[in-house]
Amino acid sequence: MRHLFLYLFFLLAFVLKSQDKLYFLDGTTKKGKVTEIGPEQIVLKINFENNEFPRSSVLLIEFADGSFEKINDPEKNIIASPDKKENFHFKQKEKEIYSYNHVSVNSLALCNADISAFYERILPSKKVGLGLMGAYNFNLYATFPNAFFAVLTNAKKHYDLGGYINFYPGNTEKRTYMHFGVMVKHTSFSYSSVKEDSVKVGNSVAVTVNYTYTKGSQLATIFTIGTHSDVTNNFFIKTIFGLGAFKLRGDYRDQYNMVLNQNNTSNSGKPADPLNVKFLPKFYFGINLGFKL
Predict the structure, then answer these.
(1) Which end of the chain is more exposed for a tag (fewer CB within 10 A), N or C?
(2) Topology agreement, domain 2-96 and domain 101-292
(3) Rounded to an integer, what distance in angstroms lies between the CA atom of residue 21 and that of residue 41?
(4) Are 120 and 166 in contact (CB under 8 A)?
(5) Domain 2-96 adopts which CATH fold?
(6) How many other CB atoms are there within 10 angstroms of residue 116's CB atom?
(7) Domain map (residue ranges) of the chain
């Protein structure tokens, strides 16, 4: 018997939690199961009975899965009904009008022939955003913005993939507010690895140079800061400035240091001690144009 009561208790809790909710323009609410959304009326099943409400009296529907559907726009001076302890208008505005999915494109990246797209999901607190970014490069050869591998022979950038977290410490209800965070970005590229072999023939030395197609990559950790500006309710501009670093690895490290040491001389004009760079800085700049979904 005790197990039966527990079962009924959890069943009742599940049913109550999975109910839809109607918000009315007068600030009142009703829970049940929405069975019909018609052009003139909305039908809500409450305790197994269908109740019809004029569509014109409903502000929005909150479905059991957490999604919303706006039916009518609220009046500016709407207030809560006397038995409520909160202003319903502000609660509705926070839940329904605010868009938690942000999609944008970095317009500055186009200068480097990059198509760079961002997706960010803002958490319900509106203080934290989690995002992914990706970019594909159409240049035949790496250019100045990718200077740390463009110096290699026949270097070409392929794509970027990354993830990031943004923090919004200010008031996100304002038109413009600050953000800061961390981005981890993987950059894929290719180049020709140069190998020189020396062979002594008699009193002379013959040098042969071999070029091998090689893939390289950078995995950078970048600390970011910038601003978010809402131009309209759905369109925004986001600025990003990032500074970080990455570690040189494998053949990429050897090739970069070889190029670096080709013109490395001391003040007297003699060859200086060879350089062996292990870490390099990483910068990121963005002016993202985006939409809220």
Answers:
(1) N
(2) no
(3) 15
(4) yes
(5) SH3 type barrels. (2.30.30)
(6) 22
(7) 2-96, 101-292
Closest CA to 236 of 103, 94, 96: 103
Q: What tokens were used for 235?
A: 């369109």
Residue 75 pLDDT exceeds 70: no
Q: How far is CA 48 from CA 16, 41, 64, 162, in A?
A: 13, 18, 17, 50
Q: Which two tokens stand for residue 144?
A: 């100045």
- In angstroms, the CA 293 to CA 288 distance is 15
Average pLDDT taken over every residue of the chain: 85
pLDDT number for residue 11: 46
> In this predicted structure, what is the pLDDT of residue 201?
67
d(CA 290, CA 293): 10
Q: Is the dihedral of CA 261, 267, 269, 271 positive or negative?
A: negative
Fold held by 101-292: Porin (2.40.160)
What's the angle, vertex CA 109, arms to CA 174 and CA 163, rounded to 5? 65
Amino acid 269: pLDDT: 59
| Contact indicator for 258, 194 with CB cutoff of 8 Å | yes
Q: For residue 281, how far is the Cα from the chain centroid?
A: 22
